[in-house]
Design goal:
The protein is an alpha/beta fold. It has two domains: 2-169, 3-Layer(aba) Sandwich (Rossmann fold), CATH 3.40.50.620; 182-274, Pantoate-beta-alanine ligase, C-terminal domain (Pantoate--beta-alanine Ligase, Chain: A,domain 2, 2-Layer Sandwich), CATH 3.30.1300.10. The chain has ten helices and nine strands. The strands form two sheets. Strands 1-4-3-2-5-6 form a six-stranded parallel beta sheet, with helices on both faces. A three-stranded antiparallel beta sheet has the order 7-8-9, with helices on one face. A hairpin with a 2-residue loop joins strand 8 (255-263) and strand 9 (266-274). It is globular and about 55 Å long.
Length: 275
């Protein structure tokens, strides 16, 4: 695996590659990230993973400074997974001058996590646009745990005509149902034991709807109340149509239930698709 830290070296390395798949990450990798590399290997001859902790997508007071940096371990994991190129630039390489030009995210970003993380999605679509331009892949692979982010990036690709196929990887979970996340390491042992509760309440909503319950408001209220009673601080538990991320119509059948809630100082997100 080639480890590259500059834009010039990256472009030189990729010159002449007939097919490239991009896997953007912020590092501190886990099995979920490695599953995206595996998907990418099946889609292109050259897999480029990026590790860059993007300051622009951290809201004021966020965890940018304490976000885990585990570069040596990440390099080993990517090499074993069959990644061909690791692009790991520093901040000055990605933002050589103050980033005055920002990409405006779509309206689907102005809700759910967008209500609680001001500026987050603007930072996401700005850095992803830069990575798309730097790597120029034919395929880019993103995880489904960040469901709203995936929707926003698909809209970005479509509306700015990048010509890149956006592929979604299935959420990888621990045996108890907790979605793998780089931030799970923040959890205390006590909170880690309680963390599957978010997935459990989302699963109850999913099962209720798939069993025929159409009182969505009641199902969501019970889910929030259950988390509240268990000591969580709930940002949201909401139901949306998968195509638009808007509140579902009465006849809409392709749905997703999404949740975000805090255990102590750790914010967890999860979602489940509903048919």
């Amino acid at each position: 695996m080639d480890v590259i830290t500059t834009v010039a070296a990256l472009r030189e390395r990729l010159r002449g590659e007939p097919s490239v798949a991009l896997v953007p990450t912020m590092g501190n990798l886990h099995a979920g990230h490695l599953s995206l590399v595996e998907i990418a290997r099946g889609r292109a001859g050259c897999v480029v993973a990026t590790i860059f902790v993007n300051r622009l997508q951290f809201e004021p007071g966020g965890d940018f400074d304490r976000y885990p940096r585990t570069m040596e371990r990440d390099r080993e994991l990517l090499a074993k997974a069959g990644c061909h190129v690791l692009f790991a630039p520093d901040e000055r390489e990605v933002y050589p001058e103050p980033q005055e030009i920002r990409v405006t995210p779509p309206k689907s970003a102005a809700q759910l996590c967008g209500d609680y993380r001001p500026g987050h999605f603007e930072g996401v679509v700005t850095v992803v646009s830069k990575l798309f331009n730097l790597v120029r892949p034919q395929v880019a692979v993103f995880g489904s745990k960040d469901y709203q982010q995936l929707h926003v990036i698909r809209t970005l690709e479509r509306q700015l005509n990048f010509g890149i196929e956006i592929v979604a990887g299935t959420t990888v979970r621990d045996p108890d149902g907790l979605a793998m996340s780089s931030r799970n390491g923040y959890l205390s042992p006590q909170d880690r034991a309680r963390a599957p509760g978010l997935n459990q309440v989302l699963r109850q909503v999913k099962q209720g709807i798939e069993a025929g319950d159409r009182n969505y408001a009641s199902l969501l209220r019970v889910a929030r109340d259950t988390l509240d009673a268990a000591g969580w601080r709930v940002d949201y538990v909401e139901l949306r149509g998968r195509a638009t991320l808007e509140a579902p119509t009465a006849n809409e059948r392709e749905l997703v239930v999404l949740g975000a809630a805090w255990l102590g100082k750790t914010r967890l997100i999860d979602n489940l698709e509903i048919n």
